[in-house]
């Protein structure tokens, strides 16, 4: 039987996929939480305000998510699940370019860019949010690592290449521009990051 609105949930947020009305409530609350994060940042994220934005009962939000960190953890779970699947072009260079361009599109999106910035900022001061952010990126890196493994299987990269390190090398300079230097992010920058990672991988830099 579907739990009634406001029932306590004794599991980590994001570990149960609700259905029916519960799913609709979760969707509304997570969208409202994202809006609030973009507008106000993590330090001002208030569950009562999120409930008001989502037009759901305050008790429902408090009982299901308990804290702002729990809410952000569930939001990151949702973002990981909704992310675009990896490219599979049969070319390492094209796959890495697709990955880099996807990262740039996300980070420059009017909503997603500020949302990621807010979540990363929150993770620096909240252990639970940091854990959720680490899980989010682990899911995305694992997804895209397949294109590197395929390149190894084709003989395009040396045996023993660490696929996850290659994917991290693609996105690291892009996040640096977003969070540290403030330099422009565009497709040219994306393509350069992808090419640098591919060249390094072919040279054996990422062989374990």
UniProtKB/TrEMBL annotation:
Pfam families: TetR_C_11, TetR_N. Keywords: DNA-binding, Transcription, Transcription regulation. Gene3D superfamilies: Homeodomain-like, Tetracycline Repressor, domain 2. This is TetR/AcrR family transcriptional regulator. Residues 1-20 are annotated as: Disordered. It comes from the Bacteria. Residues 23-83 form the HTH tetR-type domain. Residues 46-65 bind DNA. GO terms for molecular function: DNA-binding transcription factor activity; transcription cis-regulatory region binding.
